[in-house]
């Protein structure tokens, strides 16, 4: 027996899965560069959110057309991948359609038949997705941040899926034994006649070719994920689990500030006393965020999860009225900078060397940050619980608390609050005057 | 009419050794902004009519810190919050009602972590409760059959999932409630939130309040109902910019109910 294909297959599989694993480790390392926040609360609600939002696609279908097409591709993707299990077993052990030996022929036929139907549905949906992007040119796919790589990435994914679905159907159509079985070839029986003039050996060659390209294509696609916006197919699950549970209007409390404020308000505390032992590390190096490491790890997970669909941006009041702010760009910039920081760490033997750049100004401009109305439309629109607003807020905190760099009108507003307890210059003693006016 | 307004303060209640049923948190807008003061008075008239024992903090009230927090000034926010919480806790306040969704959101969601735990209601929720308890009656009066649309304040709607109370009140006026293209959880911001109220907008091709006003005008309402003093300002400005002030009025829900009864 010739073991060469088995060995070759196993090597390809190990390399494919191995390289992916290596990148996943890098991804986790990068996410952990963020600030630590404890999200161990309310597990039942978190599992429920993951089941409803990620698994159940509940927010996807709020936009019915895109939602429906997405559900088709999503279900197709998950179910057709059962077939990959058989391909891997066949590849390693040199068997052919091992499923036929394990489960009854009728069940096998039903499964493959279902895969074939789904493959066609996925193919059609992907064509429609491509049309929406490239022919109809839906506005949200043509915003200023959607040029070069982000634009191509979106199309590459669609081409990948078209090719993979085609290979799957061709593989079945050119498998003589499978066609002879005449069970489960619901779609491929119509493709088979295309190869009627082809000799049996060529047919076998095409079948093997399609089989190999299919599995290699899947492994390439798997490894493509790390470099692509398509990571959402995996990260949507943890991302919806770790998503915000408190009311959208509730902005997080900065503990470090609370300590200082309490100290200021407490007359019994000696402001000149040396800090108690072990408390030095509790005061953060800076308030707010100017770079990715200052953001919480959840924000960084958010950035990797974003698939750049642009629903957030299309709902953003600032973006709708022509301002530079785009919540999607906030997420894309965060990921790009995080990747840059990660590569910096890789080349400098595990340590980040200052590269003179940061998320603020080099990626996200102040003009974008100050255009936000904090209306939460972007948060509401995201189908996978991404929160661009928390990044905007952290960066505003840095600008105000570290740099005193708020727009001058906001500085006026804040000094009014400080001096007379209202954002306008009115005397606090006049607060009840309305009663007698 | 104004001399008839009964507006007791917490200090007065305390001097008599009494606790009011609810504290009315007026807010900076409601205290100082000429347009918003009318909303404050309309709400007080309704409270008086329903014989609600309420009190205000008066000169002891200070900004909740909302605009400071949204602008990124956590220090100033917490200073304001801690000071207000000290006052509120000293008066043993349990229940707060406010006509400003920003105050509502901040006190309800962001004060608990700093030691301020209260039951907080938006005035539309509170009026709805008064109605349900039979303490307040609502009649359509001059608003009967009028086309009214409700502009969801972001900090009431999306931020806190309050969509129905204001709408139920409008329907009680026997008015025709019409919805804009973007409403409820998809509501479009008026442009004032996140401290934008206090600064000029960044460069763009339109003001947010104009965009929202156009959405409202698309459905030809006679009245745009608001539930937030800042939204009220933004929508009023939008209507002026569109020169529609003679056709469309921007009114708070408390004003609609009070006016309908000629209070």
Task: Please state the average pLDDT score of chain B.
Answer: 95
Sketch the topology of chain A as an H/E string, one letter per element.
Answer: HHHHHHHHHHHHHHHHHHHHH
**So what's the overall shape of chain A?**
elongated
- Rg of chain A computed from alpha carbons, rounded to a whole number of angstroms: 28 Å
CA distance, first residue to last residue of chain A: 101 Å
Secondary structure class of chain B reads alpha/beta
**Low-confidence blocks of residues of chain B:** none
Helix content of chain A: 55-70%
Number of helices of chain B: 11
Low-confidence stretches of chain A: none
Beta strand % of chain A: under 5%
Task: Record the SSE blueprint.
The complex is a heterodimer of chains A (437) and B (263).
Chain A: H1 4-31, H2 43-55, H3 64-80, H4 82-93, H5 99-102, H6 105-134, H7 148-173, H8 176-181, H9 188-191, H10 200-224, H11 232-241, H12 255-265, H13 297-305, H14 311-315, H15 317-320, H16 327-347, H17 359-362, H18 366-370, H19 377-381, H20 388-402, H21 408-420
Helix pairs in contact in A: 1-4, 1-10, 1-16, 2-11, 3-6, 6-7, 7-10, 11-13, 13-16, 16-20
Chain B: H1 10-15, E1 22-25, H2 27-32, H3 34-49, E2 54-55, H4 66-71, H5 74-90, E3 95-98, H6 101-110, E4 119-122, H7 123-132, E5 147-150, H8 164-172, E6 176-178, H9 208-218, E7 223-226, H10 229-241, E8 249-252, H11 253-260
Parallel strand pairs in B: 1-2, 1-3, 3-4, 5-6, 5-7, 7-8
Helix pairs in contact in B: 3-11, 7-8, 9-10
In short:
The complex is a heterodimer of chains A (437) and B (263). Chain A is mainly α.
Keyword list:
heterodimer, A: 437 residues, mainly alpha, Fumarate Reductase Iron-sulfur Protein, Chain B, domain 2, 2 domains, 21 helices, B: 263 residues, alpha/beta, Rossmann fold, four-stranded parallel beta sheet, 8 strands, 43% helix, globular
Structure notes:
The complex is a heterodimer of chains A (437) and B (263). Chain A has 437 residues and is mainly α. Chain A has two domains: 4-31 and 63-241; 255-268 and 283-426, Orthogonal Bundle (Fumarate Reductase Iron-sulfur Protein, Chain B, domain 2), CATH 1.10.1060. Helices cover 61% and strands 0% of the residues of chain A. Chain A has helices at 4-31, 43-55, 64-80, 82-93, 99-102, 105-134, 148-173, 176-181, 188-191, 200-224, 232-241, 255-265, 297-305, 311-315, 317-320, 327-347, 359-362, 366-370, 377-381, 388-402, 408-420. Chain A starts with a helix and ends in a 17-residue tail after the last helix. The mean pLDDT of chain A is 93. Chain B is an alpha/beta fold. Chain B has two domains: 2-131, Rossmann fold (3-Layer(aba) Sandwich), CATH 3.40.50; 138-260, Rossmann fold (3-Layer(aba) Sandwich). Chain B is 43% helix and 11% strand. Chain B contains eleven helices and eight strands. Chain B has helices at residues 10-15, 27-32, 34-49, 66-71, 74-90, 101-110, 123-132, 164-172, 208-218, 229-241, 253-260; strands spanning 22-25, 54-55, 95-98, 119-122, 147-150, 176-178, 223-226, 249-252. A four-stranded parallel beta sheet of chain B has the order 2-1-3-4. Chain B has a four-stranded parallel beta sheet with strand order 6-5-7-8, with helices on both faces. In chain B, helix 3 (34-49) crosses helix 11 (253-260), helix 7 (123-132) packs across helix 8 (164-172) and helix 9 crosses helix 10 (229-241). At the A-B interface, helix 12, helix 15, helix 19, helix 20 and helix 21 of A face helix 2, helix 3, helix 4, helix 5 and helix 6 of B.
């Amino acid at each position: 027996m010739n073991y060469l294909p088995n060995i070759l297959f196993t090597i390809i599989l190990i390399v494919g899965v191995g390289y992916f694993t290596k990148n996943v480790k890098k991804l986790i390392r990068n996410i952990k560069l963020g600030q630590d926040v404890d999200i161990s609360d309310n597990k039942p609600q978190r599992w429920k959110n993951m089941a409803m939002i990620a698994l159940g696609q509940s927010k996807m279908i709020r936009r019915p057309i895109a939602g429906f097409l997405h559900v088709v591709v999503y279900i197709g993707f998950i179910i057709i991948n059962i077939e990959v299990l058989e391909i891997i077993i066949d590849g390693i052990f040199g068997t052919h359609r091992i499923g036929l030996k394990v489960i009854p022929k009728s069940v096998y036929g039903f499964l493959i038949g279902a895969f074939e139907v789904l493959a066609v549905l996925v193919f059609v949906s992907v064509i429609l997705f491509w049309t929406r992007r490239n022919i109809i040119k839906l506005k949200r796919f043509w915003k200023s941040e959607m040029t070069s790589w982000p634009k191509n990435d979106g199309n590459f994914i669609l081409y990948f899926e078209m090719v993979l679905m085609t290979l799957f159907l061709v593989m079945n159509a050119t498998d003589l034994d499978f066609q002879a079985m005449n069970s489960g070839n619901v779609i491929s029986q119509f493709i088979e006649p295309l190869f009627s003039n082809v000799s049996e050996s060529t047919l076998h060659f095409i079948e093997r070719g399609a089989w190999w390209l299919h599995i290699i294509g899947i492994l390439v696609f798997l490894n493509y994920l790390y470099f692509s916006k398509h990571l959402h197919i995996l990260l949507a699950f943890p991302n919806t689990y770790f998503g915000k549970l408190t009311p959208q209007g509730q902005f997080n409390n900065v503990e470090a500030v609370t300590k200082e404020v309490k100290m200021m308000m407490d007359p019994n505390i000696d402001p000149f006393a040396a800090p108690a032992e072990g408390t030095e590390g509790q005061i953060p190096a800076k308030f707010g965020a100017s770079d990715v490491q200052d953001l919480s790890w959840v924000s960084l997970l958010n950035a990797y999860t974003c698939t750049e669909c642009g629903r957030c941006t299309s709902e953003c009041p600032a973006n709708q009225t022509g301002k530079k702010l785009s919540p999607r760009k906030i997420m894309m910039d965060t990921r790009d900078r995080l990747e840059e920081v990660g590569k910096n760490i890789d080349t400098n033997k595990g340590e980040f060397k200052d590269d003179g750049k940061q998320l603020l100004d080099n990626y996200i401009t102040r003009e974008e940050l100050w255009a936000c109305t904090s209306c939460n439309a972007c948060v509401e629109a995201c189908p996978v619980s991404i929160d661009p607003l928390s990044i905007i807020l952290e960066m505003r905190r840095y600008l105000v608390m570290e740099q005193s760099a708020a727009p001058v009108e906001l500085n006026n507003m804040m000094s009014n609050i400080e001096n007379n307890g209202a954002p306008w210059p009115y005397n606090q003693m006049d607060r009840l005057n309305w009663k007698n006016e | 009419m104004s001399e008839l307004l009964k507006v007791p303060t917490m200090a007065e209640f305390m001097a008599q050794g009494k606790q009011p049923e609810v504290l009315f948190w007026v807010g900076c807008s409601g205290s100082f902004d000429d347009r918003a003061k009318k909303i404050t008075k309309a709400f007080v008239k309704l409270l008086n009519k329903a014989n609600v024992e309420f009190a205000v903090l008066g000169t002891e009230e200070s900004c909740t810190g909302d605009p400071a927090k949204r602008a990124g000034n956590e220090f100033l926010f917490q200073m304001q919050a801690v000071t207000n919480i000290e006052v509120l806790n000293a008066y043993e306040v349990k229940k707060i009602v406010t006509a400003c969704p920003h105050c509502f959101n901040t006190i309800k969601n962001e004060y608990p972590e700093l030691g301020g735990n209260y039951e907080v209601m938006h005035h539309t929720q509170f009026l709805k409760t008064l109605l349900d308890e039979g303490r307040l009656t609502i009649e359509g009066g001059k608003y009967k059959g009028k086309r009214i649309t409700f502009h969801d304040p972001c900090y009431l709607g999306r931020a806190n999932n309050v969509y129905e109370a204001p709408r139920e009140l409008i329907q009680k006026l026997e008015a025709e409630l019409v919805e804009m293209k973007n409403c409820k959880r998809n509501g479009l911001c008026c442009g004032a939130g996140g401290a934008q109220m206090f600064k000029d907008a960044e460069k763009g091709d339109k003001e947010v309040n104009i965009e929202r006003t156009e959405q409202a005008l698309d459905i030809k309402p006679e009245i745009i109902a608001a539930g937030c003093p800042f939204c009220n300002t933004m929508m009023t400005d939008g209507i002026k910019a569109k020169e529609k002030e003679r056709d469309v009025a921007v009114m708070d829900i408390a004003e609609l109910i009070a006016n309908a009864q000629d209070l």
